[in-house]
Amino acid sequence: MPDEDVVVPKVGIRDVARAAGVSVTTVSHVLNETPHTRTSEATRDRVRSIARDLGYTPNRLARGLRTRTSDMIGLLTEEIATTPHAGRIILGAQEEASRHNLTLAIINSHLDAGADARRADARALIERQVDGIIYATVFHHEVSVPRELRAVPAVLIGALDRQGVVPAVLPDEASGAADLVALLVDAGHRRIAFANSSIEVPATQGRLVGYLRGLEEAGIPRDDRLIASGVSEAAGGYEASLELLDREDRPTAIFCYNDRMAMGAYRAAQELGLRIPDGISIVGFDDQAPIAASVYPALTTVALPHYEMGAWAVATLTRLVQSSSTSWYRSTHPTWLPCPVVLRESVAQINR
Amino acid sequence: MPDEDVVVPKVGIRDVARAAGVSVTTVSHVLNETPHTRTSEATRDRVRSIARDLGYTPNRLARGLRTRTSDMIGLLTEEIATTPHAGRIILGAQEEASRHNLTLAIINSHLDAGADARRADARALIERQVDGIIYATVFHHEVSVPRELRAVPAVLIGALDRQGVVPAVLPDEASGAADLVALLVDAGHRRIAFANSSIEVPATQGRLVGYLRGLEEAGIPRDDRLIASGVSEAAGGYEASLELLDREDRPTAIFCYNDRMAMGAYRAAQELGLRIPDGISIVGFDDQAPIAASVYPALTTVALPHYEMGAWAVATLTRLVQSSSTSWYRSTHPTWLPCPVVLRESVAQINR
DNA sequence: AGAGGTTGCCAAAAGGTTTTGGCAGAGCGG
DNA sequence: CCGCTCTGCCAAAACCTTTTGGCAACCTCT
C-alpha cells in the first residue's frame, strides 16, 4: 500500500512561474536573491510561498550547467581511506564543505593501481565539473600530481608537490615531537630514549628531527645509544624497548615512534617488572583512536591534525576558486599544521 | 612561469564533431557506443581518435541533465563519520560505486543537529539529483527515515526502517557472538563469563543473545553470576572483570562486549597475576582497528562487516534504481551480514 | 526499372536553469 | 504634453548533452 506516495511529477522553476503568474526569470531572481534586480516585495512573497507550497526542488545539475560551477569538490584519497585516520580527514573536509554549501565527492585510489588509474580517477572528478580537487596521500613524499589536476584548482594533503605549484598541508611532526620531549624534560627526565620506526618515511625523519631538537633546546647532549628502531608495530616497539631498557644506565623515558610501538614498549616494561609511569615513562605518537585512551595507564601522545587538514584543504580550495583563475597556481609554501600533545597518564614526574 | 599552461578553452562534443566533419549526434553515438545505431567503422575510428587528440572531456552535468540520472549516489552518515569504523563503510561504498561507474557524494549529519538538519541534508543530495541515497547510522535503532528519502531509492545501514519499506543491512552480532562462544567451547572452556556494556543499544542485546545461544548450543546452562556489565570502555571492562574474577570458582574465559572493555579485562588479569591466555582467556568484539592486533597477547575478537555493509548498500541501491521505479519500495526483510571471528592469541586450549 | 530493405548519417528538440538585454508603464519636472 | 528616469517584469539565448525521427543514397530482387 503505497500510502500517499502518488508519483509526484517533478516541479520545476517553470511550474512555479506559471502558478505565480510571472516569468521564470523572476522566479529565478527571487529564489536566488539575485542582487541588482528589481522585484516588488509583493511578488517576491508570492513566488516564495508558491515555491514552498509546490515543493519546488531546484535541480543543481541544470544550475551547474548554466553557471559553469558545480559547487562540488572532489576528494581523491590515495589508499588513505584504508587507514583509521582517513575518517577524520574526510570528516574535516566534509564539514568545512557543508559550511560553504559545497558537496564532497570522494574517490579512493589504490596505491598499487598505478598512476594511470589515479589519472582516470582525477578525470572522473573533472568530468563531474568539480570546482576543485583535494588530493590526499598517506605518506608525504614529494609527489608529482597527475597532470589532469592542473585543469582545476587543487590542494594536497600529506604530500608536497614536486613542482611547488600546488598548495599543500602537512602535519608539523617535528614540532609535535619536540613538544613531547619538552614535556618529558619538564617532568624531570633527561635520559630520554627514542624508539623510531625502521622504515624510511617522512614521518620517521620528522619525528627524529623533533626529538633531537627537543633535546637540544633542553641542553641535553645527543646520545645515539638512546636511539633504537624497529618495525612500526607493537612487535618493533617491544624489541626496541627491550634493547633500550636492557642496560645499566637505562633511560627514564621512552618516546615511541607511534602508539602501536608504544604498546610494545608497555609489554617490554611489564616483562621487566617496570611499572608505568613510575618505573618508566612512555609516550607515543598519532593518538590513534581507541588505543591511546584504552590502554593502562592511558598513553600520553601527540595527535595528528587530520580533521584540521581536511578542513584546511577545502577552505583554501574555496579561496583558490574565488580568486582569479589565472593566479591560483602561484607558488606557495606548504602549510604545516600543529600536532598537539595529548596529556594522559603514562609520564611520571621524577626528581632531578 | 605558467609553462604550457595556456588556458585551454574547454572542448565539447561540438568541437569534436566539427573537427571530424560529422554531426554531434554521431559523436555522441560513437563515444557512448549506443547500441542499435549504425556508423561505419571508419567514422568511428576517426571520431574516437579526434576526441582523444582534442582531449575531449565529457560534461557529466550536461549528460545528467539530459538523461535524468546523475550516476551519483549519496551517502548520508548520521554522526557515524566520527567513529573509527566509518572509514570502512565509506570505503566499501566507494569501491562498489567505482565498480558501477558511480560517484559517491557524502554528507555527515550531526546527531544533535536534529531531524530538520538531516532533512535538509537529504534534500541537498536530492537537489544534486543523486540516483539513490544510503542512510547510515551508528546504532541500529528503528528509525523513521526522513520523508524526503521517499523521493528517491534509499537503503539503510545499521538501522531498521520503522515502516519496513526501506531495505536495510545490519551486522549479525548475535551469530558472531555465538561463534565466539563456540570457539571458546571448542577450546575446552565451559565457565565462560560475559562482560556486557551497561548502556542499552541494540548491540548490547544482540551480543548477549548470541552469548546465550552459544552456551545453549553447547549444552552449558546459563549462570547469571557469570554475566556482569560496565561502561563500554576500558574502565568498565576492568571493573566487570575484577568482579567476575574475584571468586572461588572463577571463569576460565571472559567474553567482553567490545575490544575496549577487553583492554580493561587485560589490566584486571594482570593485576590479579593471571597470564593471558593461560590463566584466563579473553575475547572481545569489533576488531577495532589497531587495538586488537597491537595488544599483547593479540586479541581474538569478532569483526564487524563495515566494508561489506557499505558495498552491499550501493549494490542493492543500483539494483533498486535499475528495477522499475514503481516497485522499489516493496517491503523487504533486513539483511544480516555475518561478523567473522578473528582468531588471534588470547584464547588458550584447556583440558576439560 | 521499380519496389523494398539497409546503411550511414543528420537536424532539431529536449532537459532545467541563469543571464542578457530589453520593453512597457508609471512618475516627475518642465 | 514632452522627455526623462525609474520600476517591475519578461523573452530568448545559452550551458552541453542525448535522443527522436527521418532522409538520402545505395543495394538487391523481381
UniProtKB/TrEMBL annotation, chains A, B:
Q: Which GO terms describe its molecular function?
A: DNA-binding transcription factor activity; transcription cis-regulatory region binding
Recorded hits in PANTHER family, A to Z, give: HTH-TYPE TRANSCRIPTIONAL REPRESSOR PURR-RELATED, LACI-RELATED TRANSCRIPTIONAL REPRESSOR
Q: What is this protein called?
A: LacI family transcriptional regulator
Q: Which residues form the HTH lacI-type domain?
A: 11-67
Q: Which SUPFAM superfamilies does the UniProt entry name for this protein?
A: lambda repressor-like DNA-binding domains, Periplasmic binding protein-like I
Superkingdom: Bacteria
UniProt keyword terms in alphabetical order: DNA-binding, Repressor, Transcription, Transcription regulation
Q: Reply yes or no: does the keyword Repressor apply.
A: yes
Q: Which PROSITE patterns match?
A: HTH_LACI_1, HTH_LACI_2
* Entry keyword Lipoprotein: no
Q: Please report a single Pfam family linked to this protein.
A: Peripla_BP_3
